[in-house]
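Dear colleague,

Thank you for sharing your sequence with our group. We've completed the structure prediction you requested, and as agreed, I am returning the results in plain text so they can be pasted directly into your records. Please verify that the sequence below matches your submission; if there's any discrepancy, let me know and we will rerun it promptly.
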Amino acid sequence: MWARPNAWHWGWRVLGARHFAKRRQRLDEYEHYDRPLSSKAWKRLKSEGSFFEYSFQDMTAGEVSETLFLASKMSLENPDFWSRGSLALQDLASAMTPRQLTAACWAFGAVRWHDPAFSQLSSCLVQHAATMQATHLATVAQAFARMKLRSGPVLQALSSAAEEATASGKLNGKGLAMIAGAFAELEFRCPRFLRTLDAWAVDGVLGMRLDVCLDLFSSLALLTEYQSPGRAAAKELAETLALKVRELEASQLHTATLAMGKLRIDQPEVIRAFQKEILAELNSLHANSLPPVLESFSLCFAALQSREAKEAKEAKDAQSEAQTDVQTQAHQLQQLQQAQQEREFFLAQLAMRVARELRLLRPQDASRALQAIDRLGLVEPRLLVLAAELVPQRLAQWPAAQVLSLLEAYARAQNADGFMVPCLRRALLSTEAMCAMCAKCSADAEGSALDDLQMVRAAQAFASLQHPAGIVALALKRPAAPSCQLALASLAMGLDSDTWKEATHRLLEQAKEQIQADTLEALSVALAQAEGVKAASDSRAYQADDVLMAILAFPLHPSRSGWCHALATRMSECSLALLPGFLLSVRSRPDESPQASEAAEAAEAAEAAEAAEAALLRRLPEAAGLALPPAAVVATFRALAQLQARRARAEASHIDAEVILGATLPLIDQLAILSDEDQLSAKASVRVLQSMKVLGLEPPPPLVSNGWQLDARGAHRGFEAAHRKECESFWRTRSPGRGRHQGHGSAPELPAGVGFGRPLQAAAPGHR
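Please find the predicted structure tokens below.
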């Protein structure tokens, strides 16, 4: 029979309901925009049936802001709506109040809308940043982080305004955590903002909510580099988290531990508190979180050891000046030994848990755990034995491309791990593969798992990691492509004879137990003869196209600047279709090479680019009957547009504009033919339209009309929208009498045969 609940039961239910209502009322002003719409707003939307009865172009600034805000609350996903809303916001941003501008930015951030044109709002946001409320500053910063827009002027203005608001007490810990999180996500490091955090953390950390404190601590870890401003704030936040470490959940404990490792926390009390909590929650931690937790504690222990060594040295110096109590010294030494034993016990427990879960982890996780223990001068035998057994087996099952990607990741991080790099080399080039390359097997043999391009990429990674055995093993087989052969031989030139012999000896020692004596002897002879690949490192022995292809294929190669210097005098020998790609590669990314910071090598690349520009402008008018590939036509337009932009910035004022326009003559007709035959993709059409806008050229009608069939051909929506935008841009600037979008001047006069008699808007019937 049902029993009626007593008064005690109802009292607890009422208390729980009141507590829940009280928690709902605790939402602060920084969460204003994240709240759901009120019932009154939903009823109004339901009764009216829509936002407004007219389009964006007839709205006021306030109506645009309100429309965007309501659309984000309704989770509207129509990209056309947000594209038009973005244009309306850019037009009316100067007429909006700070509150309206904040609401509009939050709306675009809520739907994760990414539009690079938002950078045009920088002037309005910079103007309003000083007068914005603290909540608006945090909301705008969070919106830009959600949109993945790293606008330097906007972020700098928000940082300056946040510094003033923090100094005046208007910005609390929640706002600072939101701004710091946005800066960390956008990788915007501002030393003044970090110093402001240091000054605020002295008194501001007290009374912070635990989740806010953790968010600020993790954001500070991403913003702060080792021994840089922000250490004072990190110390205060770490002490606060250590006091409440028992309240952290497993995921929060993992986040806080990783932040401690990045900040190199060296406070014994903080480390001990987290150490005890990790031991208590060790079985509840996910297996994937164990290697990073072990690495974070090893970094903290290493920082603590250096601090203790420094303090011991200072105490020893002070002892020489004044006599210290022997009993006090013995007590301090006993405390240090006890702390060291606790750390070793903790690391042993954590390493044993990693060893038990090693079969569920990735090979790089095992290497990460071994590196963390080795950093402290310790060895875990069980983990080492299991890793030596499982990692090679796991890597042997991976495809060669995946192993190569992992090797390149280690090279980018400059992580020359003595355990993982040899394992990756053996996975790419096993002993059987090297023997097969010695025997000159067919292309389907196991020794040919890597193609020519992958061989050079692997050799570059081994050279970056200073692992000569990998380069020696790759030199057993010479690439078929001359450009790849030049790149591999240039890398082999970096090894002297002694280094080559040492690497050969290491390879033979590892192959002794796997192959027979006669095969081992053949491998030894082949490795010794492979040193002859160095003779193929002279770029003068190759055709100019091969050297140019090596420059394009391997932009991070150490010999790239030398190739550019040798190619500068041979540009007339290069194929016309390759010159635009070379110009785009050199002019667009001049600093990607590790040696590009040196003035001499940067000058060599610039010299080669100038020679390529001169050769391109000289040879294009002579190539009237030459049919270039579609990709070469697009690259040529982009290269000429880049040259025109440099001329407008007075960087190439010695080149006449008529020369640039004359170089486009043989390309216009070919572009029209390619458009008629549908040989240009949506992306290529957009690139050509953008380049022709910079050059001041009228696009051929087939190219413009090509955009209206993009949807039927299954083109990507982003490229289709970009094509329409470029076409509308030409239509606005070329067609007179179009209201506020009237043209801003006529195009420069074109040479004979370039212009098209029919107007541009006739190329797209039915538009608007």
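Summary note from our side: The chain has a mean pLDDT of 80.

Kind regards,
the structure core
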